[in-house]
Amino acid sequence: MDNLISNYHPLTETYSEMADPEGGLRPHWSPMINRLNAYGAENISKRWNRARRVIQQNGVTYNVAESENGISRPWELDPVPLMISPDEWEVISAGLVQRMQLLNRVLADLYGEQKLLKNGTLPSELILANRAFLRSCCPIKPPQNQFLTMLAVDLARAPNGEWRVVKDLTQAPSGAGYALENRIIISRTFPTMYRECRIERLAGFFSTLRNRLAELSPRKVENPRIVILTPGMMSESYFEHAYLSRYLGFPLVQGNDLTVRENQVFLKTLGGLRQVDVILRRQNDSDCDPLELNQASGLGIPGLVQAAVSGEVVITNALGSGLAETPALLPFYPMLCRHLLNEEPRLWTVPTWWCGQNLEMNQVIDNLDDFVIKRSFSGSHEHPIFPRHLLPEAREKLIGRIKDDPKRFIAQENTSLSAAPCWRDGHLTPRHSMLRAFIVATRTGWKVMPGGLTRISSKSDSTVVSMERGGGSKDTWIPARGQVEKITLLPKSGNEMELSRGEDNLSSRVADNLFWLGRYIQRAELQTRTLRTVLRRMTEETLPDGTPELPELIRTLGVLTDLSRKNTPIKNPIVEMDRTRAFLDSVIFARNQPNNLYAALNNAGKIGAMVRDRMSMDAWRILDRLARELQAATGEDELTDIADMLDNLLVPLSAFSGMGFESMTHGYAWRFMDMGFRLERAVMSAMLLKELLTSPDPYEAPMLDAILEIGSSSITYRTRYQSNAAVLPLLDLLVSDPSNPRSIAFQLELLNEHIRELSNLPRLGQLTEQIQSEELVRFVEDFDLSMITAFDAEGNRPRLAEYLERIIDKVQELSILINERYLSHVQSTSKLSTLVGGGS
Fold this sequence. Notes:
43% of the residues lie in helices and 12% in strands. By secondary structure, the protein is of the alpha+beta class.
């Protein structure tokens, strides 16, 4: 049997989480290490490779604002959890409870009587000159004077084994959702090990959080409306916001989804305004209200502070609570603990000095290499400075900065973080680690998460564990003393639940995003089908003149992607292969084209991320596969390889459409997505037919076959007519036949049905869009196509062109009407790219 720890070498001068000072295994690690040994290195690696694919498919990401593209990267998770003994966890939990009490007392005083400032216990410049101190929030009185509903604390273990506080996160503490996702992934990857180790569950913590939020409602109603406020998908932890929204069952909203009327907060939904009782905010204090706080913020809700003052809504954590996470307050907390609680700290802070006091400043400068230098106040994006690594010139410059403005700097003891075993290249190796622990305050006590988010360094010689600087994460396991308490967030009795089939929490912004998601998915599908038809003809073993329809197909592809104006016609695509290949690369891969295939799939992925709390995991995985299929191909591939890629793309594109129809309840959310899908298919189908049939090629027969192939209707046509394709039956099949899912008539019938259902929403004024959609259905289904298929003297079909143009115009007008009635007050997703298919 493999022994995974035989070659494990703990780091020197560092506390080893797994190994004791004699090199033996700490007792609480034994069950897990024994099971890992039983698995063996090969089995562990195999299981973990599967788990990493799940992380990617689930879209678990951390957004790094300073990355090259300013977007997300996959979440880094290590398969070996951090083990903490039950006895040690009791000590940590007691310290967290005390920390929560202390920080609440400090906030209550600073936003209340301010005795700590009046009697000189705290220097006034730490508070009154602090941007985190929000004077306009002083009148806010949280329920039970509890400013913090949830607290996160970063803990580091010193070389002597003691846990110390490095940082408090009080305004919008992040990481709990990632901790839960880590637990789910690890427990499913190693289910036997998880059961044998008898690990405390996390669900009870989230159940307590959900119940507490409901208790905070100022309206004593059975089902208060609770929302999670996010700054949006560019937030570092947006994945967590969407994840918690799904897990807790609360709508995920942005600032423009909410409005304040007469000191009450309302969610703007398709059905009208719905009063919000509690806001679990995931954005910074200053961004929450542009009237009272940061005027430059576009993320907040005007009037929110006044609504909180009036008590009509409860915001948690309370606005202004970010003051408690001011780094310069850390050295004062031990003294404050004695002063406010009459207790010694149970969790000591990492030794910290505020340079705003002469004695401390001189001590820091004299012993600079022993410290890590940080900014005194929150909100600074500067990384910590390690003076011992600075060159002499940079060191002197740092000293000058400290002396010029000492109150802006703190110094923390350069503690060597403990090291935990991590899985690297088939064996265990130590990495520095830090624990983020979480606690929720209830009406009568506190609930500590039995675990947390452990962060690890990327290299053994680095103590940097932050995710934005390349660190990874671990699950945190606390073995249970007795039986593991089995807790679920599902209701125990369905008989006590009020039944609901409504969607009264669907905001206009979400409806807008779903509408455009449908449009981009269908745009990508039709472009893919057209491209595949072109590439099949280019890779067939035929003479150069064996595909006379090819030039027109390529020209039409340029029209559908808005590239025709930038390119002169390619009269012989196979002979002019270099030009043809360059054009196809622009249509498929170019990142600077707003209407090509890459743009359609990229925009679909962006919008999917905006509404991922509304999407099933299966639907999200399909979007992820779409992105990976296109990214795997390049302009360097052979045409046959690109044709295979297009075939592969059509599978998830079709699957997404089917998933939406089968997996989403057919309420307003689904209807808006399907309306976007149907509008785009109707417009682009009409454009395709107009370009290919109104000025016919002398070789029309192969062109008709190509149209049937693009419209996925070749088999239906052959079954019906058992003859070569002809214009009139083709138009009947692809335009007027309401039984063909690919026909324009079919799209318009479904659009009309959706609009009829939307008429039930409480909107004022005449439903012009309903009248127009009904007229459009009759126009297409009742029209005699035989009247417009004849040629004129010049060999064109002008009446067919006029007919199809009219359909395009009418559908575009219908799109505008839908946008103006339901979506016009949100920032339109259509700004992501220029619209090819017309409309708003």
